[in-house]
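hey can u check if this looks right to u? its 265 residues, i copy pasted from the old doc so theres a chance i mangled smth
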Amino acid sequence: MATMLEVSGLYHRYGGGDGAHLAVNDLTFTVETGELACIVGPSGCGKSTMLRCISGLIKPSGGEVSLHGDRVDGVPEDLAVVFQDYSRSLFPWLTVRQNVEFPLRWSNIGKAERRSRAEEALEWVNLPGVGNKYPWQLSGGMQQRVSIARALARRPALLLMDEPFASVDAQTRFELEDLLRKVQSANGSTVLLVTHDIDESVYLGDRVLVLSKSPATVVADLTVDLPAERDQIKTRESAEFVSMRAEVARLLNGGVKETADAVKD
């Protein structure tokens, strides 16, 4: 597979002098085209800072970020972000369809095409027929689906997700996780999802990158050896899932990556 995202020696420091704070330190990893990669790390380790640097929202203090071979300098046109707080990311005075179309207004896309893309994206997230409703008329889980649809309508080369399911209840979270895997697989999307939830990272990801405590650096890059078709109950009960979850938990608590043979034993 071709490399979609390359992060090399990324670090970022807030402030200067005695008050300086190093948020991320020497982050180096890649994400391949069509891959769903999860990054998991302790709370406050610098995950959101890393995403802001990758998305071009802030300029890193050092290192380099490249998207399909082009160095990121500012926000790329073919990148989209889904945030945790859906209630703040949607405009309550716009209809659902208008919210989904909103980012397309600044692209060279006609009105008819914008509407078509919005309706298609809403179908992808199982929300056909709600385009004329307003966000406040929908449940929290449905609002987050609208946020995902808005990102997908742009047909981004890379979709960044910052703890996108943390603000919904457990049952809705499971539904959204399954929805994401289905949509990602159907569209061949490249996704980098950040979370602090170990189970979520293993269930969703093709790979799990484990970060250290602040300042964040990559301590392990694990391939998730689970079937492409996953089930919230059967998958989470499987020996492979339990073993991987334990490995990620151990690494988050300061352990050292085990060899493949040791994990099997």
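The domain at 3-78+158-264 is CATH 3.40.50.300 (Rossmann fold).
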